[in-house]
Amino acid sequence: MLDGNPRLNLASFVTTWMEPECDKLMTDSMNKNYVNMEEYPVTTDFQNRCVNMIAHLFNAPLGETETAVGVGTVGSSEAIMLAGLAFKRKWQNKKRAEGKSVDKPNIVTGANVQLCWKKFAKYLEVELKEVNLRDGYYVMDPVKAVEMVDENTICVAAILGSTLNGEFEDVKLLKDLLVEKNKQTGWDTPIHVDAASGGFIAPFIYPELEWDFRLPLVKSINVSGHKYGLVYAGIEWNIWRSKEDIPEELIFHINYLGADQPTFTLNFSKVPLNNTIWFESSYWSVLSIYSAWLRGISKHNDELQRQCNGAQRRIGEAGKFNIVSKDIGVPLVAFSLKDNSRHEASEMPR
């Protein structure tokens, strides 16, 4: 049934409907290959404009004529790999300059992180230090996270919109605690914010919440276009605070398709369904999001929040469930059975 009706897919945080104009744009662009920037310069311009708009949305400290630093990827896994690579290489360069070992890098996260973080740690040989969750507290505790930081920590990863219950981790408190520890130790441990779910929610529903580049230790942010970015599955954005946060040796320059083309991605040729048409449709949607932000309003997110509040109220009134989602987070309702002696949670979707 789900194969026949994607609109019934409520489990994987993906957009299942777009405007007819976007559908047509995608169909008309199916035969493009984004990697050939000389052949498709306007598509490249679309990506760069999307990066700039998202960077401004996330309060990147850009000058009036300064270009934002970022890239579109095929999903969270590629985005996290690239962000992690940048942190690891910067840490290695610093340690080598100090004459110290680079054998044991680590990264600190909560145990609630998405699988892509575990892949990054295993594939790129970085120790994953996970802050354990506890009953009633389903996100990373900033205090415990900072306690786990040592001189080999390449970064601390905070989640803006946990997969478990939609909750935002306290990035501001994490920053404050890290600033103090860095001051005491002489380290400069940075922060990455995995805003795959919450990056297109927080700026509109919680504009005063400090989680982004307003915090100096936040060096990079990833956000999913195909979650709350209003685009079909297959696009993630990775934004860096400045060009200094990507070591130059990780950027490749190629010229066999024409002029010099800098690239910082894991793959080269890209299947059309994961590149050109997504940049173009993302540009359409990001324009809508950005203009809504400029007006100080986002009807889409307001409606999501209204429906979320209504669903939470009605589920609570049933008297059979514990609400485990929090007031500040992505607009979803997470709940558990009060009495699981008669039913398993897995039975509820059926």
From TrEMBL:
The Gene Ontology biological process terms listed for this entry are:
L-glutamate catabolic process
Q: Which GO terms describe its molecular function?
A: glutamate decarboxylase activity; pyridoxal phosphate binding
Essential cofactor(s): pyridoxal 5'-phosphate
Does the keyword section mention Cell membrane? no
Q: What GO cellular component entries does it have?
A: cytosol
Pfam families in the cross-refs: Pyridoxal_deC
Reaction(s) the record says it catalyses = L-glutamate + H(+) = 4-aminobutanoate + CO2
Going by the entry's taxonomy, the superkingdom of the source organism is recorded as: Eukaryota
The UniProt keyword set, sorted, is: Decarboxylase, Lyase, Pyridoxal phosphate
Q: Residue span of the signal peptide, if any?
A: none
Q: Using the record's annotations, give every residue carrying the modification N6-(pyridoxal phosphate)lysine.
A: 227
Per the UniProt entry, the Enzyme Commission number(s) are 4.1.1.15
Task: Give the family this protein belongs to, as stated in its UniProt record.
Answer: Belongs to the group II decarboxylase family.
Q: What is this protein called?
A: Glutamate decarboxylase
Protein species of origin: Thalictrum thalictroides
